[in-house]
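Hi L.,

As promised, Glycosyl hydrolase:
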Amino acid sequence: MRFGVNYTPSEGWFHHWLDFDLDSVRADLDAIAALGLDHIRVFPLWPYFQPNRTLIRPRAVEDLVRLVDAAAERGLDVNVDGLQGHLSSFDFLPAWTRTWHRRNLFTDPDVVDGQAAYLRTLAAALADRPGFIGMTIGNEVNLFAAGPHPDPDRVTAEEAERWLARLLAACAEGAPDRLHLHASYDAAWYQDDQPFTPGHSARLGAVTAVHSWVFNGTAQRHGRTSVPAEHHAAYLVELSKAWAEEPHRPVWLQEVGAPAPLVPAEHAAAFAEATVRHVLDCPDLWGITWWCSYDVSRELADFPELEYGLGLLTNERHPKDIARVLSEAARAHHEPPPVRGTALVVPADPAHRSRCGPGGPVFDAFFRLVADGARPTTVLDTRADDKEHLAARGITEVVTPDQVLPTPQGGTCS
């Protein structure tokens, strides 16, 4: 079981790449390593690293290698996200893809060639570093493909799959035999018209990544101490398994956090403890990577209010109560959980995936089962009668949402 954190530098946020200070990074990593965590996920800002389609800045790549080496010195492995992309409400896209040079991020041949060269270059620079886990194509790149983005780069599901396959191959060309993957925000699981589908997440790349944020309507509907809020990360892990071809494909909870004001600061540690405890009850979990290491400094303007307090540590590198929760979990021994034998049927057609989102019948039925003490997983409606598939996953009971009756608590008790 891996426990880590998404690395947001204490000084300068991700703009630290412009004035890279290895001593500051080392101090950040010392405080993270002291928590007993074993890995970080880092975010080169794409426009800073590849400001022109044919210019990948050697100095920026060297700084990334120096960060990975510094992490390894402290016992921290590193996953690198390439295309940033979207972070904390800001888009970071190079000028050669926007305005006067507006080209589709997913289908323009020159843009895709440039992206492939960039990812290949980063992967190759890190290929011989023992602490390098692998590449993630980018952070929640599916956000650019549909609404609610204000200026989306429209793409079909087939085009999205070709794009993912091309860029995963570029990562593998740069660093063979590493763990390369892609990561979508939860619209891939919940939004009917999102072209990046559950099947893409669960079948492409070395592991499935899920990002769990309860500000998606879960906490608003049910409250921070509800079954849906405290089990939301576990739900996404188990929901993803319905689409996987491999019966025991690893799932990485690559982002999860305690967003204010839905989870007030004084309750963040309790929320983290419940979230981690419940997700550790999911078989085939690769690891948990909390968002994030350090708060965003109040000296930086225009971030959503919640971003200023999401860190495990303050900007002065002091651990908060929530850091102690993750530290205790990382240092504890965790036995592999037993299989989940009850499977809830979910629609295979991605045009109906909103049924799995907050307020949908699959979502509500799953948490009614949890509230009643069950440990459910999910199965596609097209596989619900496939005895070989069910047996491979250890599923002994299949139920449909309309068979799961409401409980007196309404599935919202903790």
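The radius of gyration is 21 Å.

Thanks again for sending the construct details.

K.
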